Amino acid sequence: MPRVKARSHDVDEMARMMRAEAEGEGKQGMLYVGNVIINRVVAQCLDFKSVNNIHDVIFQIQGGNYSFEAVQKGNVFYQRSRTSERRLAQQNINFWRDHPAKYALWYFNPHASCPPTWYGQPHSGQFKEHCFYEPKAGTCDSVYRG
Which top-level group of life is the source organism from (predicted)? Predict the structure, then answer.
């Protein structure tokens, strides 16, 4: 059973986001970005209480800006998805999860070493240039269940 409901359009949007955010980090990096997207749909806590589907996550605005840099800049996100990226997105939707993004709700590329926390959330690991962060214990139990 999939972790979230997704139509063809959702799979395409997610695939475009995964490509835009992590194409340089290969399939594995794109899968980790997909983990974060699906985790945010499932989380229903913290900043993600009002996001209920993939589209909501991708276009969420926080602090006056889109949450994802690729949407803010727009140039890469609006490229078409490829079949290989749609397959990766479908893997995430169908329940693919892995460390360091297994429970992560955030990631970023610091262009330096990963800080041990990011806005108070613990570092869960790093893959190539991206640092991943999961919620502090007890603040978002739904991400660990879903």
Answer: Bacteria
Cβ count within 10 A of residue 92: 29
**Which residues does residue 131 pair with via DSSP β-bridges, in sequence order?**
108, 126
Report d(CA 126, CA 88) in Å as an integer: 20
Structural domains of the chain in order of their starting residue, each with its CATH number: 8-144 (1.10.10.2520)
Q: Is the distance from CB of 92 to CB of 99 less than 8 angstroms? A: no
**Residue 2, preceding bond cis, omega within 30 degrees?**
no
Residues whose CB is less than 8 angstroms from the CB of residue 107 and which lie 6 or more positions away in sequence, other chains included: 32, 33, 36, 101, 130, 131, 132, 133
Q: What's the pLDDT tens digit per position in 16-48?
A: 999 999 999 999 999 999 999 999 999 999 999
